[in-house]
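Handout, page 2. Input:
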Amino acid sequence: MAFGVHTVRQRMLKPIRALRRDRRGATAIEFSLLVLPFALLSFAIIETTVSFTAQQLLTNAADTIAREVRTGQLKLSNTSKSQFNAKICGEISILTGSACSGLVWDLQSYTSFSAVPTEIPKKQDGDIDSTGFGYDPGAAGSIVSLRIFYKWPALTDIMASSMSNLPGGETLLFATITWQNEPF
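Output:
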């Protein structure tokens, strides 16, 4: 009788032992455990890389346009505010598309370098405060500052909460350059 109980127990444990030895599904289980962290890490890397690239594009656009103002190629007499806006949009069109929505800029001349604003103007809700922004490329020898702000939309919802610093899940990208115009 003891022999019969032992045989029944072996028969019941045989499928369990077979499952323990079977490794065919291990890869699928390991993949399912690792795919989410890997995807999150991949999206974070892509989002950060694209954001840094956009920031560099904005900085290059500010440098290019500032050079044209500094040398007298862009003056109040030959460029309107809308033409200047179109010039900035043309420089960053790969970033913004043709609509150029989310772009805010300020070009002002100042009496001294110490009078140039050093802080980002923000409203109470944290958005950009463009009150007082204008278009004044200045005359020869004047001190001029160009500030370009772009509201970068997060590409993935996962990263929006950790990267955004503006309302609506957007990230503020900005470039500032200050110079003294050449005697043109």
